[in-house]
Amino acid sequence: MRSQIMFALVVSAFGIGAAAAQTADDLTELRGEWHRAGAGFACKVPVKRQLTPQEIEAGVLSRACQHLGPFVIGQDAQVVRAALGPPHKTLPQPNGASALIYFLEQQGAYPYLVVTVLKSRVVALQVTGPAAAKGYSFNHLDLGATTEALVQAFGQPGHFEPSEEKDTELWTYPPWPFSFEVRGGHVSSIRVSEP
Predict the structure, then answer these.
(1) Left (φ > 0), alpha (ψ -120 to 50) or beta: where does 129 sit?
(2) Rounded to an integer, what distance in angstroms lies between the CA atom of residue 90 and that of residue 58?
(3) What are 169-185's pLDDT values in tens digits?
(4) Are residue 91 and residue 177 in the same domain, yes or no?
(5) Same structural domain for residues 44 and 138?
(6) pTM above 0.90?
């Protein structure tokens, strides 16, 4: 259990014990969901077969709940570039990282995606805008969702603070690797990062 994050497997009855090997690409496509587990969260990952200890140790399960839309934390940045093309903007970040900014519908307008890359790996994903960005939900929560929907899905945040954005609050759930910005009673930004 890395960075105090608890991972749980929800194994379907189909294919349990199957000996067929999966490729690394198949394993990165595992998608889990965060669920409340007492005061914290568990990443529940449905699988169609029993995973080997090597697959679990390889950190595959730790990434299953780190998807934002089609992308996942830890992924090679070339996957993002292949899907979206060159970024519309690139901004330097601390520690040698870069923020790749992609406008998802119209250049220079909401919604936009920020992909933070360090040493050719995606270390953070953030989508921002006043309304849902098609294909960029996190744990079935979209931009524009009400604070009631956010609380229903994730509970009350562990910490509130003003965001850098005017009239916006930052909701965090330390030590969990996701956060939300809320403006006018609606989710205006979703961020997922490395634990």
Answers:
(1) left
(2) 31
(3) 999 999 999 999 999 99
(4) yes
(5) no
(6) no
